[in-house]
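FAQ
Q: What does a multi-component entry look like?
A: The components come first, one per line:
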Amino acid sequence: MDRIVLAYSGGLNASVAVAWLAQHYGAEIVCVTMDLGQGTDLESVRERALAAGAIRAHVLDVREEFARQHVLPALQAGAVFANGGPLATALGRPIIARKLVEIARIEGTSTVAHGCSDQGHDRTCLETPVHALMPGGRVIAPACEWDLTRPQQIEYARQRGIPLPAAERGSFDVDTNLWGRSITRGDGDDAWTDPPAGLFAITRDPDRCPDEPAFLDLQFEQGIPSAVSGVTMPFMDVIASVSTIAGAHGVGRVDASVSGPAGPAVREFHEAPAAVVLHLAHGELESLLIPHALLRVKRGISTEYAGMIDQGLWYSPVREAMDAFVATVQARVTGTVRIRLHKGSAHVVGRKPGLDEPPAESRKAD
Amino acid sequence: MDRIVLAYSGGLNASVAVAWLAQHYGAEIVCVTMDLGQGTDLESVRERALAAGAIRAHVLDVREEFARQHVLPALQAGAVFANGGPLATALGRPIIARKLVEIARIEGTSTVAHGCSDQGHDRTCLETPVHALMPGGRVIAPACEWDLTRPQQIEYARQRGIPLPAAERGSFDVDTNLWGRSITRGDGDDAWTDPPAGLFAITRDPDRCPDEPAFLDLQFEQGIPSAVSGVTMPFMDVIASVSTIAGAHGVGRVDASVSGPAGPAVREFHEAPAAVVLHLAHGELESLLIPHALLRVKRGISTEYAGMIDQGLWYSPVREAMDAFVATVQARVTGTVRIRLHKGSAHVVGRKPGLDEPPAESRKAD
Amino acid sequence: MDRIVLAYSGGLNASVAVAWLAQHYGAEIVCVTMDLGQGTDLESVRERALAAGAIRAHVLDVREEFARQHVLPALQAGAVFANGGPLATALGRPIIARKLVEIARIEGTSTVAHGCSDQGHDRTCLETPVHALMPGGRVIAPACEWDLTRPQQIEYARQRGIPLPAAERGSFDVDTNLWGRSITRGDGDDAWTDPPAGLFAITRDPDRCPDEPAFLDLQFEQGIPSAVSGVTMPFMDVIASVSTIAGAHGVGRVDASVSGPAGPAVREFHEAPAAVVLHLAHGELESLLIPHALLRVKRGISTEYAGMIDQGLWYSPVREAMDAFVATVQARVTGTVRIRLHKGSAHVVGRKPGLDEPPAESRKAD
Amino acid sequence: MDRIVLAYSGGLNASVAVAWLAQHYGAEIVCVTMDLGQGTDLESVRERALAAGAIRAHVLDVREEFARQHVLPALQAGAVFANGGPLATALGRPIIARKLVEIARIEGTSTVAHGCSDQGHDRTCLETPVHALMPGGRVIAPACEWDLTRPQQIEYARQRGIPLPAAERGSFDVDTNLWGRSITRGDGDDAWTDPPAGLFAITRDPDRCPDEPAFLDLQFEQGIPSAVSGVTMPFMDVIASVSTIAGAHGVGRVDASVSGPAGPAVREFHEAPAAVVLHLAHGELESLLIPHALLRVKRGISTEYAGMIDQGLWYSPVREAMDAFVATVQARVTGTVRIRLHKGSAHVVGRKPGLDEPPAESRKAD
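Then the predicted structure of the entire assembly, as tokens:
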């Protein structure tokens, strides 16, 4: 092996991985950093990759592609966790996998690497798509191979002159993309007490939200969000706009304790204001427009769709078949839903089928 | 046929039914009115029954039985509508059916009657249990047989000197019991506009709720709600207490538009503050305490349980089998959930397994 | 109303219906008889219709359309009863409904009639599609309205000079189309004893089948049966061919006792040699070719598809959505399955993916 | 670690494991061999264990326990593979796990070992129950750790004077217990050709079966098989008796090609005459006796039950809950089913509810 394409986030873990992989496998390391809307300065990330020893560092803006080809199908499929929480991190994995494979092809190698440690579904969600897209390829997870504690990683970086990233946010492990933010606490999982201050970043504490409610009119055309409160905009802008408004009203926090297959429950925090509000509105419109018998079958598909994402099967025939099902349903999902946002809660207060007639003036102008 | 046992609510419909049944079938009419927690003065209902021509009028307080034998199993089974709304009206039907059959046996007849008109599942939910409990019995639904408009009913009552009930609440059709309140509007189903003032009765408008949130600590012992914020109380008192507090914070309203098998969607309103909060807390505790593999199967059972209630199959082997499943799960559901109530929303903010140790003093006293 | 389009089978029931409808509704009766492969002489049926008083009698050969647009989707969807028995009668109803509606439009009326009595799903399966295709139309089921015993029907026919059909097969009620044959016994449902002689017509008694097994190589191209033992033929010919061979080896009998929602179980007989063998082969090929995760979801769709047919929802968005799902799966279902037929049993003994290479000679010829 | 309890089958693999574990872990090896009805001479197996270096070798007859506590619940739950094939190997794993743990406790150790290599679900099905029953215990799978080809294993055994087992059956990998036999071929998975001669051992080739069919009357009392053709016998004897008769008529072979999550389909062979016939009869009796609505929910439970076994979750709350469901259903399953066995096929030809009255004479004798 002479070249490894590494998914590089810019964190300590990833920087150590550059040096460790080069040393351990005697390989050239090519870093790939993807912009999924996490809001980090990716130019400086690229510089850190090179400083850590990468021979090349690619930065890819995949936001549009992520929104249209991954987030939208999941929204239309109604794919949420069993507790109603939206899938955000797991949705981002397949596109990361695809880009890694694309760059690997360009770089003439079939070996990729990533920084996931061996916990939860993260690794499955990334590695399964890589294998689906590049049969026979190899995936290395350095964090699962080495035996370095965090202080040892810092020491490892220092000895090799690898620049350390600015102090990372305390004890939280965060994954962000434009559809949502997942936070895991490193320090035990007390399910009773309030989450520590600073844990949530894009949603306001309901106690400090405006006293007046806000109303959002969300219009869908054939299942695609197409306008917010009368203003037509592309899907990515709908996400950004709804995220800002709903977040300002404290909507979109998920605080859940989820039992494991064995062992104690794990407390998970998510904040996904756009996802929560758009799933709510989309589901309401389907309740209004889709006949009962079809709705019942679609609910089964929603559960399967979420499970499919969770098992890393995005690039597989099962998604293709479910997407075909969902597409015929979406042809009927045109209308507007009015949502009331207030101090942490979002409620549907109105819904109507079809598109509003454009006002007389604008039609004259045509 | 010489005697008919009629489920009598005290409304115009029911009063006309007394006279109509006596005339049409040449039968003695025995009225039965049940207290399921609807909060009506049942003594005056009894008097109206006799004034309408009933030879006897029974009033039965079935609240305790309803709470323990019907509401609690549905809570533990997680039986809610597909949109998350709690089942209240449909839950009350089987106990009404059983009491009708019991009184019919006492009265020496096998004919019962009720006031449901032929809409929705109401009739199925009442008649199917009657037939299950009294095979070969007969059920009469006068409102499905006669052809009387409301003004004609009033005229019919006037001619026969039947006392008219005080003006009924405008254009709403309401069904209330201790687990919730369902409201149907008679005047079309505009799904876009706000519901008319006065439609909700036991939940406050979120806009006029206290500015400060309230917190409820809900303790469950083996799946049974056993204490509210540290105060131990029986299940019926938990319902009343949670209903009052949650209702005061605007929690428990459901405003949904539900597509029919054919034809346009119907807008339904429910308010069920205790049901919404207790289902939320109970579900959260199961997420914390029940292994993932069991939780997944139980979710399927929850859907089937709601469907079973909806189809009027309460007194049937399918409930028995699902209750046995649910019972083994509930043995593990002991713990406390903290709920934050604020301006129409209820969120879980803490959960812990097990029972709190009694404070040191109380233990000393032992 | 001046004209009624009646689905006319040629039986006593149907002949009486012609006269009864004309008399009762003062209408002109137009009869429609469809050839779904039941193997009856339809020209004589047409004559009987006219003799019974119809002003016109249409005979339509819908076999090709039935096979391609109804049987094939159900085969590909894997739609069988819970006990594995194939759906044949219920599959035929929607096409009968559609042709009735088409003829009604041509005849300038919106009233149709049929001979189903009010038992089982037969009526639902016919009337629901009619209402879906002709909203606002009217469906009359004379056999549910009149109060005529069989002897009374004969008397009714005699008095009006309606020719009686040749003695109908004893006490069986039979429905046949090219996909299968369903038999209901009129004389009680003893589930223990052997079915009476003569009940089965297209499958041989396993005791009297050949001693040597037969082998069928069934080839599918993208989910469509395309060749039998190396001979390429259209789907309708595959059905006929497999039906003959499998029937001769006693394969395809279903003898089941099915519990009702209430009351005793009903014994049902079916014989559907082609359906049984083709479902077996198609399912085996899917097991071979479809990834496990997709197969699991498809099994859920199969169950829903059978339920959809059973509820008469063929012309509805739920079929459209499920068909789209199934279509993406079928794109992968190309290969051959070898079936062994012997004295009533059919077993898979071989399966291979892809199409056989044409032999060298035939390629030279190209 | 000073002592390891090893599940010992007597094969080459297992004998090498005794020496390898002793050497590698410096531990005393205690062998445990269980009689699940595989029909091997277990006394000679014990001797081989000692000859291979075990310090002690336990032989346990667990047939009765296996039949009553594992096979019967799976039969009553209707737990079969998606293709209808019965679960036999996977059903045996949990009892092996439990006995290993019990012996480990007696032997004062918390380390157990087994011979499964890392293929399919075998390892999961064994290790998951061990961990459930002995949290914190350790499971060693030597065949997954060493890197020995079969010839190397033979050489390893020879060098250490370990007696080699009599030549093992060619290229098949076989697992047998009283409920069935699973065979995997080592030499590729051609899904088209006939299985090699000698692959099946307990079912006769349909071509060489008796020309006359056999009939079995299978009686169930509350879901428990209690009599075969009028002769009352315990469940284990029912299994043996049905297995012999059905096997002689070629019934119970499963030859299936099952697609993997990725990669090519795998061909599996099973023979399980008693399982196939008893599942058929039990299912038929449920169809006759269980109301439709309950049957539908039970079918979902059957699928989940098979999945639970497959995932090694026998000792977990999910089985407990499903067993409680199934138990209430079985209370209704009393009756007799008549099965016709002929040249490889088994068909239901009669069924009746309840128990037969004992004949007059036998009652006199009371």
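Q: Is there any commentary attached?
A: Sometimes. For this entry: The mean pLDDT of chain D is 90.
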